[in-house]
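OP here, attaching both records as promised.
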Amino acid sequence: MIVWARAWRKDFPSRVAHLEAALPDSAWRRSTTPGRRDTPSFSPFRWAKKRLTTCGAYVILKKCQLTGQPGYGNPSVTTMANPLEAIGHAALAQLQSMGRMTIFLGSACFCAFLPPLKLRRIVRQIHFIGVKSVSVILLTALFTGMVLGLQGYYTLRKFGAEGVLGTAVAMSLIRELGPVMAALMVTARAGSATAAEIGIMRITEQIDALRAMAVNPMKYLVVPRVIAGLIALPLLTAIFDVVGIFGGYLVGVKLLGLSSGIYFSEMRNAVEMADINGGLLKSLSFGIIVTWVCTYKGYYTGYGAEGVGKATTEAVVLSSVLVLVWDYFMTSFLF
């Protein structure tokens, strides 16, 4: 059906011109000004649009135009002679996308306080985002801590400071690597699946069906995932920190022969509660960013399998970049 609509779109102007030429004489308004050609008393485009709407083809045609498919009516394929005009159009498109994302997040936060609170869906999303990501978090955290212990030991040995290995591993994990790596793993595993799931619901018109049944799609689809991200990601970060410290212990103490008392005593003296709170605040903000971006990209996906794949890719890439950028600002603000 979409292919048929694209074929209609390609020769749509010629069909309108043919219709205009075939209009009866009564459809033309005679001009009273000498030398001016006759003008039609009604728009052939509006007439053709009405006829196409009757058979349902114009609706499909309009969807193809609005969702970025190349062809008639799509500004993305318009040839621009002025490079500055092209830069301006790109900048305006980015500003429009940023504004839409901000409004999307604001709508989700507003709907989160509207009753009723869908606890069953929130628990289901916590299981999907949190529980199903534990295996990935455990594996990643263990080898991250082991790499930190190995590299940190050989680096600190050059300065005769092997005793602070536990401090180096713990501070690196609690402040930076724990929240960031946990957010990236959740983005890769749960964020991509979230964007694809909501995107498929969009292209199969399930979201429109929710509206037709007087169900708010924002509260039903987006709010449970955002709340689940806020709850699950700090817990996953805590698991990542503990397992990563244990991985550094395995390498530093069991493999390289460092004293376990020195490993943990130096860690206890150096790590403060402010460091732990800073890491948890980072994980909270990362939970909002990951769920926000992934649900947004799925909610406004393009039509077709290509649109879902593009939305999923954009969700993972944008979430990962925003996590790293926001980590820098949070670090400069907190520490």
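Record two, same layout:
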Amino acid sequence: MKTRSPPPPPAQPAHRPVLVVGASGQLGTRIVQQLSAARQPTRALVRPTSRQQHLRLPRVDIVHADLAEPASLDAAVQGAGTVIASASALAPLAGSRFATVDDAGYAALIAACVKHRVERLVLVSVPATPFDAKVPLFAHKRRTEQRLAGSGLPHAVLRFAPFMDTWFALAGLALATRGDAAPLTARPWPFLQRFMGVVGGLAESRGLLIVPGGGDRRHAFIAVDDVARCCIAATRHPAALNATLAIGGPEAPSWHEVADQMAVVLRRPVQVVGTPAAVFAAQRLLMRPFSEAAANFMALNGFAAQPRPPESPDAAASLGVPLTRVADFLRAQAARPA
């Protein structure tokens, strides 16, 4: 594919802000918190109707824009030094769809970054799998990666393994999101809230962990705080420039091994209850005519139910980011005030 090269960026004033797209989400919030703690000038891009009080932090300016409204992005991008984009329509709010957010919205964001000569765009992406075409989020991420590669814009694509904070909570461990200012599982998407009404807290209340596939499925779970550190490092690190990095956690435990670690911090046995991939495949087909987002949710679980090679921790090491083990994550969460 022939690429278009934008004009070289002019000399930039010091301390141009980092623009975080999707700042009100679980990952975006952690990125903003870490940038603020590092005294880095930051712009937090949020929709006007999104929760944002938790983003009112030192050196953070909140800007209102919406990927679903491409014309709103130009002013948000202008003057930014680097951009970290973590937004998606995974758990959609009103008016959000994959076509408007993850396709047209990201196309407009890339165009605005080229126009304003952003130094680097860091795209938060997902693992490459044989099932990409069946998972709308994955299919749109692949198209955005291709569009970004053809734009000539300096960039980094980070394909992360499953987030332990999110997947442990979805499996029934309420402790996984303790202290989280913006957990995915709390988003007011009715389908997700009905799902969490069934599985939320089952590990604590009944000693059950509801997982996709079976207890022997292994994943290189990565902590959201570590994901945020990787994103921030990728805005400047030479190893990330125009690279696509698959980033996993420091180990690849099975769900049985995760349950054993949970049992230690909960001080009670935890039993794994698996759901076969075929169940998620059938649910995806049933839901597709009515809700693309719900069908995508089932497809994500179907992906997680399949055996596949785990991502390596080497890419995180190349960015200089130390990684958190499952046992350490769980102990730290258990130590937080309930």
